[in-house]
Amino acid sequence: MFGKHSKNIALFLIMAFIIALMSFFLPDKFLTVVNFQSMASQIPEFGLLAIAMMIALITGGIDLSVVSITSLTGVVSALILKQFTNTQIGGASIFFTITMAILAAIVLSMFCGFINGFLIANVGVPPILATLGTQGLFLGIAIIITHGHGISTFPEKFLFIGSGKISIIPMPLIIFIVCTLLVALILKKTSLGISMYMVGSNPIAARFSGINNDGILIRTYIITGLLAGVSSIIMISRVNSIRPGYGYAYLLQAILVAVLGGTDPSGGFGSVLGVVMGIVILQVLQSGFNILAFSPFFKKFIWGLMLLLVMIINFVIARYLQRVKKLKISTSV
Amino acid sequence: MLKKIFKHNETYLFFVLVVFSIVITIINPSFLTFENFFDLIKSSAGMTILTMGVLIVLLSGGIDVSFTAIAIAGQYISANVLIASGIDNLYLAFLISCSSGIALGAINALLISIFELPTLITTLGTLNVFHGALLAFVGTKAINTAQLPNCFKLFGHKDLYTLMRADGTNYGLSVYVLPLIGVIILTWFILRFTMLGRGIYAIGGNKEAAKRAGINIVGIQFFIYCYVGFLAGIMGVMHISLIRYGNPMYIVGDELSVIAAVVLGGARITGGSGSILGTLLGVAMITILQKNLVLIGLSSYWHQFFIGLIIIAGVSTTYYRNKLISKRSIALISG
Question: pLDDT below 50 — which residues of chain A?
Answer without folding.
Answer: 1-3
